[in-house]
């Protein structure tokens, strides 16, 4: 591997304080993001993918905490940073865009205010300079009439436009890492394609790494270099995107692939993985996927599988492969 | 502008209804003539006074007379002071406005920091302490609080004057008395409004930008939390004015409230009617103001 590692996550564990004690939603996740690459994290709701990204940003809800593991960003141990150092990183080195463009922008401030705010904070620019940079950023993400949009309020823009604004804000300080949590899920299909194209083009022109969180394998195929499949707070498979689609190994990944309907096959029933992601407060013993797994045998209920390296870049957590 | 005129026109029936209710109420609750004349007055004397004041006309005639005067800006003469009722009230108005504004400032100064703090420290001992205090503040009758404050800070420690309106020092205790109840209500409102806002996506976005928590809470969250708070508080003007009646009486504050209480006791009809008219005017005005403020604070509301 030639590229250097930008972010390294080692055995990350996150738990939440609830009325019934601690509940762990991320259980020992290990992965890294290389400079300039796009890493997709795939999984159903409740697999811990969003919590992982919030943990990296250091903005877990107040009842959540990272209680084990390491997060290293550019040789900095994120868990040892002071609050102030972490703030200096957020929005500047690592920035984030969210799933809901409708609610992710503050409704009472203008687009200009929300753009300038980050730029002034991290670049110590004057208001006029920041305003100019804001306009440039809006133009960069393909917003027509950028100057006018600066004076608009979020509700005056469409969902796609708002997501573009979010991307403009996130990229305004030239971050090394952009975390995108389901950035296209809430958008119309045509707008989805536009946003993905935009992200791909922006990446081509900068060296920003992207960590994209999604449950949509179409998005993965569209944009990712490498993929991590998460299930119940664990990584169950990791592979380059081409390899994963060609040769999915984990039964869960296979299930996800099979759930995509194909145009030329006429079927009565669409394939779906039975059951749901287990409740973090009540995890099954052994392999966490075994209650839903078509290949499960007696030993799957006892042995907790390790992540096995199948080749240099492909790893799977399953005793059956 | 069109919106404003529309809303002003809508207030006309409100005024008519209020005037009618007050007009009837002051007439069915007692006879001013028996209070105006000495007990030794003969029936004939009473009757002639009634006749000269127009109390012997049918009620609807009296009302129509009254209203036709009101429309011309004449609220009649005070039976007690023998001068223009409106003039007496307007003379007292500045004192009441002064007290109301000072109380509002006291309330805001207490409620904003406590409300925000209690939302941020939700379900901690501090939060319990603040919300408990708010319940207590709301439950405490203002006449009782006023007397307690006088006892403690004017009689025992002699920091503030007991009553009257001569200096800024005189304003402190009445403003605290009246402000406490409003602060209690406002604190709870800000707390619940902040709690709702702090869970919103845009608060997380603000954090993800690397903003200081103080900026996230006091600017991004609070500016949104303020929308319902301002609206509801502006609608509370009637509570505020009702509060001045009691507070002014406790502290002998020479305002409209004190005058109104006296006028009711003396059946001084013209003064009672004019004062209620003025109060109604202020309540309606503040409702309009609330509406405008709401539109100002929330850009999502469109001006028509």
TrEMBL record, chain A:
It is found in: Cell membrane. Keywords: ATP-binding, Cell membrane, Membrane, Nucleotide-binding, Transport. Belongs to the ABC transporter superfamily. GO terms for molecular function: ATP binding; ATP hydrolysis activity. The keyword Membrane applies. One of its GO terms (biological process) is peptide transport. Pfam families: ABC_tran (PF00005), oligo_HPY (PF08352). PANTHER family: DIPEPTIDE TRANSPORT ATP-BINDING PROTEIN DPPD, OLIGOPEPTIDE TRANSPORT ATP-BINDING PROTEIN APPD. Residues 7-257 form the ABC transporter domain. This is Oligopeptide transport ATP-binding protein OppD. The keyword Translocase does not apply. GO terms for cellular component: plasma membrane.
TrEMBL record, chain B:
The chain crosses the membrane at residues 12-30, 99-120, 141-161, 167-184, 225-251, 271-294. It is a multi-pass membrane protein. One of its GO terms (cellular component) is plasma membrane. One of its GO terms (biological process) is transmembrane transport. It comes from the Bacteria. Keywords: Cell membrane, Membrane, Transmembrane, Transmembrane helix, Transport. The keyword Cell membrane applies. It is found in: Cell membrane. Residues 93-290 form the ABC transmembrane type-1 domain. Belongs to the binding-protein-dependent transport system permease family. This is Dipeptide transport system permease protein DppB. It comes from Pseudoneobacillus rhizosphaerae.
